[in-house]
Amino acid sequence: MILSGRSLERLKEKCVLLEKEGCSVEPLFLDCDDPESIDAAYEEIKRKHGKVDILVNNAAICLDQTEFHPSKTKFETLEMTIRTNLYGPFLLCQKFA
């Protein structure tokens, strides 16, 4: 199993916990907002494992923790949310298909 995310430090901590439960797991840096990061992760996985059997995408963000009002939300906040929650899974599925 490969556990990926933006914080390699946090990934390593999670991998230790999963290994204690008997899982074979390795951390991999991946920023699903960044097509170059997706490409690099894909190449690393391909080099080490050949292919991906199952892709579980659980990346999502909610940057506006207040009550959502379109008239009060900054465009940059909405843009980052859509990039992570919509474009990220799209790009990952496209690359790993």
Question: Mean of the pLDDT scores?
Answer: 90
Q: What percent strand?
A: 5-15%
Shape assignment: globular
Radius of gyration: 16 Å
Helix fraction? 40-55%
DSSP, total strands: 2
Brief description of this entry?
With 97 residues, the protein is mainly alpha-helical.
3D structure, described in words:
The structure is a single chain. By secondary structure, the chain is mainly α. Helix content is 52%, strand content 8%. It is built from 3 helices and 2 strands; from the N terminus they run E-H-E-H-H. The chain has helices spanning 8-20, 35-49, 75-96; strands at 2-5, 26-29. A two-stranded parallel ribbon has the order 1-2. Helix 1 links the parallel strand 1 (2-5) and strand 2 (26-29). Helix 2 packs parallel to helix 3 (75-96). The chain is globular and about 45 Å long. The mean pLDDT is 90.
Short descriptors:
52% helix; mainly alpha; 2 strands; two-stranded parallel ribbon; globular; 97 residues
